[in-house]
């Protein structure tokens, strides 16, 4: 399946993508592999690596992401980054011989979904 990697433009810390992202496509699921009693309650999804990488590269605080759902519907997701911890957050590191406190190295970029009728989070890992 060919996927259009979207072009986007930035506006005051908000990126808007010009075309829908097809992050997942539905693949046939053999009857022996259906994990539910009712096969209509199961989907097998394949993630598109190019679309995933394009989303992973976004670093702005807010962005609008047009998403194509597995059923073909299009949704515009409004995403806003938030901090999960404060700047001075520390963690305790313990070994068999000692324990110490250390600054927490933030390795995630969490986003809240701000759509009417849709809520949740998108968590992007740094690597």
Summarize the entry for a quick read:
The chain is mostly beta strands and 127 residues long.
Give the secondary structure arrangement, pairings included.
Elements (H helix, E strand, L loop, with lengths): L7 E4 L2 E4 L6 E4 L16 E4 L1 H8 L5 E7 L5 E8 L8 E5 L4 E5 L4 E8 L2 E8 L2
Parallel strand pairs: 2-5
Antiparallel strand pairs: 1-2, 3-4, 5-6, 6-9, 7-8, 9-10
Description:
By secondary structure, the chain is mainly beta. It has one domain. 6% of the residues lie in helices and 45% in strands. The strands form 3 sheets. A 6-stranded mixed sheet has the order 1-2-5-6-9-10, with no helix packed on it. Strand 5 and strand 6 (74-81) form a beta hairpin. The longest helix has 8 residues, at 49-56. Mean pLDDT is 78; it is low at 1-10.
Number of helices: 1
SSE pattern: EEEEHEEEEEE
In terms of quaternary structure, the protein is single chain
The unreliable regions are 1-10
Intertermini distance: 26 Å
Largest sheet: 6 strands, mixed
Mean pLDDT: 78
* Cα radius of gyration in angstroms: 19 Å
Number of strands: 10
Overall 3D geometry?
Answer: extended
Helix coverage percent: under 10%
**Strand neighbour order, sheet with most strands:** 1-2-5-6-9-10
Structural class: mainly beta
Q: In what range is the share of β-strand residues?
A: 35-45%
Count of folded domains: 1
């Amino acid at each position: 399946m060919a996927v259009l990697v979207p072009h986007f433009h930035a506006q005051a810390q908000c990126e808007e993508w010009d075309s829908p992202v097809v992050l997942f496509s539905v693949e046939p699921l053999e009857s022996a592999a259906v994990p539910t009693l009712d096969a209509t309650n199961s989907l097998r999804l394949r993630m598109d690596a190019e679309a995933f990488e394009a989303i992973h590269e976004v670093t702005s605080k807010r962005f609008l992401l047009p998403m194509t759902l597995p059923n073909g519907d299009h949704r515009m997701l409004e995403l806003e980054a938030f901090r999960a911890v404060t700047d001075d957050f520390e963690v305790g590191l313990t070994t068999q011989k000692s324990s110490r406190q250390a600054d927490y190295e933030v390795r995630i970029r969490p986003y809240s979904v701000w759509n009417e009728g849709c809520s949740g989070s998108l968590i992007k890992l740094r690597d």
